[in-house]
Amino acid sequence: MAFTCKGRFCSSCGKKQTDNWIAKATNVLPKTRWQHITFTMPESLWKIFWFNRDLLNVISGVAVGVIQEIARKKNAVTGIFTALHTFGRDLKRNVHIHLSVTCGGLNDKNAWVNLFFPAAPIKKMWRHRIIELFRNEYKNQNLSLPHNYQIKASFDLWMQKLYETPWYVHLQKPSDNHKRNIEYLGRYIKRPPISEARIDEYDGEQVTFRFLDHYNGTIEYIKMPVMNFIARLIRHIPDRNFKMIRYYGFLSNRTRGKKLPLVYKAIKQVVPKIVRTVTWRMMLILRFNKDPLACPNCNIQLGLRQVYYGLPPPLLTLHINHMINNSE
């Protein structure tokens, strides 16, 4: 853990980024009621995002727009952030949005007003806006589609069927348990599509991993060739500089410096202090109750005395080949 790749897709580095996010969020996010909402869409739309990856930049804003429209009816500005996922537990394509929103917001007098988000209109608004997004992209000839949907009549029929299909939007019960809220969110924020703990076996050719099937509540196992596993995994790597986590309302980077102090004042919360970044050493101490920089014999603090540099890559390759040849 001392030497990491710092990649967003790495399960080890993802764990560290998650812990850092939880530490900061516990301190910064308002201690009020939050509601967690998952916006999904029909399976037939999932693959379209691989032909039109720029649309992944848009759909978080679509989900947020639904919530903000409801909040505007009470003249309130909420705090919202979203996490985009393109995968399901079985690593198949499954584009969906995890959204968290404060169950209240600031009105134009900077007073706190409580909000309620009804499920039925949210589902209808989400469905309508995503379908309109696809229709507008098609009208402007910005949409790449499979051959069977390129004809306008076929595309219109497809959109109409999607309108007639109920869309699933899961709204959790609002909670004011700050610790539980943050820990729940941490599971979705920085994690890669699969953790190392879910990979049960690798024999050099086949990979076996498990996942929880939400439809029947059972643990399922999938075994596949390693290259198929890698192909299924890497297609979920986000594009360079792509924002997987996005903040809106009084949590947006543009306004939080001005708005958050007003929120703390409105809900009578003490202004938080700056939290230090969680280091690899702190993570090991918290998890294993053992300081990696303390001598196991005398418990004296270890320090850097000297650095030894190994062979450069070309010479290292020659050295390894030489060792292999001599061992045969």
Question: What is the secondary structure topology, with strand pairs?
Answer:
Elements: H1 11-28, E1 34-39, H2 43-46, H3 48-51, H4 59-72, E2 79-87, E3 93-102, E4 104-106, E5 112-114, H5 119-139, H6 152-163, E6 169-171, H7 178-189, E7 199-202, E8 206-213, E9 218-225, H8 226-234, E10 245-249, H9 256-266, H10 280-288, H11 313-327
Antiparallel strand pairs: 1-3, 1-6, 2-3, 2-10, 4-5, 7-8, 8-9
Helix pairs in contact: 1-7, 4-5, 5-6
Provide a descriptive summary of the structure in words.
The protein is of the alpha+beta class. It has 2 domains: 11-193 and 236-327, no CATH class; 197-235, no CATH class. Helices cover 39% and strands 18% of the residues. It is built from 11 helices and 10 strands. The strands form 3 sheets. Strands 6-1-3-2-10 form a 5-stranded antiparallel sheet, with helices on both faces. The radius of gyration is 24 Å and the shape is globular. The model has no long low-confidence stretch (mean pLDDT 86).
List the defining traits of the structure above.
328 residues, alpha+beta, 2 domains, five-stranded antiparallel beta sheet, three-stranded antiparallel beta sheet
